[in-house]
What does this fold into?
Amino acid sequence: MVRSVVTLVAVLAVTACSAGGDAGNRFQEQNPGYRTRAGTFYEETYLPEAVKGLIAAFAPQELAEEQAKAVLRDLIYDFLDMSAHGITRRAHAGVLARLDARIRALADGPKVPENYEAWKKGGNPAFPNPLSFLTRVERQSPPVSLALSDELKKEGWRVRSLESLDETGEYADLLGVEPYQVFVVERTPGTGQPDESLTLLVYRLRFIRRLIAAIDAKKQVKPDIVLQLFWRMHEHAVILFQAVPVQDDERLKEWVRRQWIDTFCH
It folds into this structure.
């Protein structure tokens, strides 16, 4: 039976965000009154124009100004409450799902107005939305890229980039944090030979403390597991997780290091 050999590499993408873990209480302790200050700023700076745009997006249905204000205030403070605990795409999607539900409750019929999605995306002068940084959850571009060399391609290696919430969510249980992006580098060497794969999990740095704690916990339960700093460059750190020995693994590791050098240093 073909045995699957899996090496997991966690890529911790560095951002300017504060380090996390149980970030909510720590964030509130270090930033007292932030929710009120930020919420007041958003209401004064962005809310009036966003309300006008949302009302326009509802046409020909009618949406009262006070209704629009109430819905968008809920959005603002829902987002701020979520962000105190660490912004993830899945948590942000939950905020927008609750906004969608409120909009459906105000609309005539089960569907939201056809221009509502255009308003959410922003950039449309007919439906202005200065709160679009809250109402968009899609990523404009991947935080990390990976291109294989011709040498690796000739040897049968291929790379898949997993970016949707359904795809990245499958890896959430590994270290208790859902990765922001996943790369799978894989090949099937030949008939009767074990599959080989490298999985690169991309996280925001603010989760580093939680991730390190999860790694330590796994090593206590499975002391034979291999978890180590694999590579570091620019604003990225790579941690190697190897659950099963890989044949000629040092050569395979060097291949991966070479690809990161090619990607980030040239």
In short: Residues 17 and 191 are 47 Å apart (CA to CA). Residues 1-21 have pLDDT under 50 and may be disordered. The two ends are 41 Å apart (CA to CA). The longest strand covers residues 4-13.
